[in-house]
Each structure stands twice: as C-alpha cells, then as structure tokens.
What we know:
mainly alpha, Serine Threonine Protein Phosphatase 5, Tetratricopeptide repeat, disordered C terminus
Amino acid sequence: MFRQLLDDDCLNVQSETTVWEAIDQWINRKDEQRMHLFGDLVKALRFGRLPIDYLMNITKSSSVAVSTGPNRTLIKSMITEHSKLQSNCGSNITETLKT
C-alpha cells in the first residue's frame, strides 16, 4: 500500500526529498521488518528530481541507505544514473542551442 502511494501520479509533494524522507522514516520505524522493502520503495523515487548533493548526503547520513551492501550499491547506482541524466540533459540543451 505504501508503494502504491509513492507510485501515484497524483502524489503532490513540493520536493522529491519529501518522498525520500518518508521512505527513510517508514523503514526506520520497523527496520527489521521493513528493511527488505527498501529496494522496491526506492524505485518509486524520481531521483532525477533530487539534488545530487542531497543524494551524496544520503550515503553518509541515512542508516537505511547504508545498512546493507545492497542498499549502498543501489544508492550509488542512483547517483551514477543521476549524473548521467544530468550530463545527457545538459548536452542535449547545449546541442539544441547551437542549432
């Protein structure tokens, strides 16, 4: 049910950081019971809307994100993909402006 809420296109938040914080807090409340859901829930994040410095901070400050190897790997993958997305978007804009 929580994942359905996160996936809902009508979810209205001012910042995607709110979604991350909801995931982090929800798992932390019952971490032993919910930790296995992290990978699935984090897929609902629109990580391209998260500032890169915020993502980098997650790797240092979130007990959920760094608690297991798979979680750390997933967050690092998100950072890598975010960087690629920003690079691709930036180069597309640059190329468009040149024409």
